[in-house]
Amino acid sequence: MENSNETLENAGSLPAELLNSEVGATAGNDTMSPDDMPMIVWLRGDEDYVEDFSIDADTAMKTLGIKRSRLTQISGKELRVGRIRIGRYVRPVYRPVDIQAYVEWTRPTATHAKSSNIIEEAAGELLKQAQKVSGSYEAILEVHTADITDHINESFKDLYQTVNELLEQKQEKLFDHFNGVRSLFADLGGIVNDQEKNLNATLSGINDQLTATLSEVSDQLNTFRDKQDQLKSEISALSKFCQDVALETKQNNAKLNDFVKRQEEATANLAKVIKVNLELQKETQNGLKIISAQIKELPAPQECKAPKMRSALPPPRFK
């Protein structure tokens, strides 16, 4: 009964497709007429007709005179039910109009009422006969009570003895099993002790090997650190040398640039001198040409005898 109610009320167990389909039947029309409502009405709480569903499951069971399992069976089939989320669960709610309509629909007719009266009369007669039988049974019971009591006591004694025998047999078997288990645990304890000794010896050897390995690794690490420091020193010296070389190269490049600049200036001055010299040579050649032309235009010279004169200079001496 409780499982069926949880199935009806648990919101987490309802598939999303069912929720969407049932809500879709009513979500688009908040002013739906009562006759147009489906047998299962999913309520959000903001509909105009949500206040009509004012009866909970307990009140409906009391009004209809049925149990929860029957109410769960007819809800959504013969009786319109609204389902609304209250807290963590979806609860069933009902309209008074639907409850009254279901009561009128299930009300027995006149023929049915007559049949009900006949059944009630038969039930009364049956009750009277049952009372008579009960009285007869009590009288017989009083007569045979002693015999029945003795029989019960004998049966109880036999049962008690049988149970004791079975318990003793089970107890012996249990003690045998217990002794076997105890011996098994003793053997297992010896095996565990041997394994523990072997394990301790193995762990001791592993510890010694690990200590030696760690010592060797430590020595190698110290050597590596010394090499690393030496390498750092060499790298520092090389870096300083590179910086000095770069500075010297920079200075030499500056001097070279200065020398090249001076050479370019000297070359430019030399080019100017050569140009001036060429211009002077050209002017000289032009002047010589003019003089040569003028010489050619002069008249031929006449012959004349020069007077003999004694030189006042001493004669040259040749070695």
Instruction: Tell me the helix content.
Output: over 70%
Radius of gyration: 68 Å
Strand order of the largest sheet: 1-3-4-2
β content, as a range?
5-15%
| Unreliable runs | 1-30
Helix and strand element order? HHEEHHEEHHH
Mean pLDDT over the full residue set: 79
Structural class: mainly alpha
Q: Sum up the overall morphology in one term.
A: elongated
Major beta sheet summary = 4 strands, mixed
For the record, give the distance between the C-alpha atoms at the N and C termini, rounded to a whole number: 165 Å
| Overall strand count | 4
Helical element count?
7
Question: Describe it for me?
Answer:
The structure is a single chain. This protein has 319 residues and is mainly alpha-helical. It is built from 7 helices and 4 strands. It is elongated. It starts with a helix and ends in a 22-residue tail after the last helix.
Throw out a few tags for this protein:
single chain; four-stranded mixed β-sheet; disordered N terminus; 7 helices; mainly alpha; 319 residues
Task: Detail the topology: elements first, then pairings.
Blueprint (H helix, E strand, L loop, with lengths): L1 H8 L6 H12 L12 E4 L11 E2 H8 L3 H7 L6 E6 L2 E6 L1 H11 L3 H34 L1 H153 L22
Parallel strand pairs: 1-3
Antiparallel strand pairs: 2-4, 3-4
Concise structural overview:
This protein has seven helices and four strands, in the order ααββααββααα. It has 319 residues and is mainly alpha-helical.
